[in-house]
Amino acid sequence: MERRPIKLFFSYSHEDEALRNKLAKHLSSLRRSGVIQEWHDREIEAGADWEKAIEENLNAANVILLLVSPDFLASDYCWGKELTQAMERHEAKEACVIPVILRPTAFWQTAPFAKLQAFPTNAKPVTEWENQDAAFVNVVEGIQTVIDRLIQTETLEDTELSLLEDQLPIEEMEEAKNSGQGEEFYREEVLNCLREDGGELLPGSY
Q1: 60, 94, 133, 203: least CB-packed within 10 angstroms?
Q2: Backbone phi, then psi, for 38, in 5-degree steps?
Q3: Each residue of 140-197: pLDDT tens digit?
Q4: d(C-alpha 110, C-alpha 34), whole Å
């Protein structure tokens, strides 16, 4: 089974677009090797429903980067929409939220994401580093660690799914696989069929 790229979502203020672009450059090797697939609101096409596009991509993301700055915290949309949705998905273990401290920001330690591991190291803002490239390398190395963990988890889940398939009658397995509704639907259908047929579910598979 071909591994899907880890989807990254940038939550940021447009005032920090230049810094976001620099971070994206440092992530380019991961993107070109197919490890990650990034998304931010500048990719929304003209005439598209921008709010729907943001919501859909935020919901699809495996990793959500919060690019923290005074403008980020001052943005009603970043705070009220994107941050709220991101933290809900993090708490539900549907995505991993990573705060990236771009600029000195008063009282960010009281924000909902303050309990999460922030980058760069010691949450030193990127703009306070003598060499910003070094700061972004530090951030990307932290992101890479999270991605490696997600890939390892995904690999284990794929192995588990293969074992589940071996327990499922061929006809029911093909019906689930050919449903055309995606891998998550297929996985759930495999589990449902096993439950209905009295099959033995492996520990941790549901």
Answers
A1: 203
A2: -95, 155
A3: 999 999 999 988 877 545 544 555 555 555 555 556 556 656 555 555 655 555 555 5
A4: 36
Burial of 6-24, coded b for 16+ CB within 10 Å and e otherwise, reads bbbbbbbbeebeebbebbe
Indicate left, alpha or beta for 46 from its phi (over 0: left) and psi (-120 to 50: alpha). Answer: beta
- Percentage helix, strand, coil, to 5, in the chain? 60, 10, 30
Report pLDDT digits (tens) over 14-46. Answer: 999 999 999 999 999 999 999 999 999 998 988
pLDDT of 99 > 60? The answer is yes
Report the C-alpha gap between 56 and 200 in whole angstroms.
35
Average pLDDT, the chain: 84
Helix 132-166 crosses helix 17-26 at what angle (to 10 degrees)? 60
What sections of the chain are H helices per DSSP? 17-26, 28-32, 50-60, 70-74, 76-77, 84-91, 132-166, 170-177, 183-196
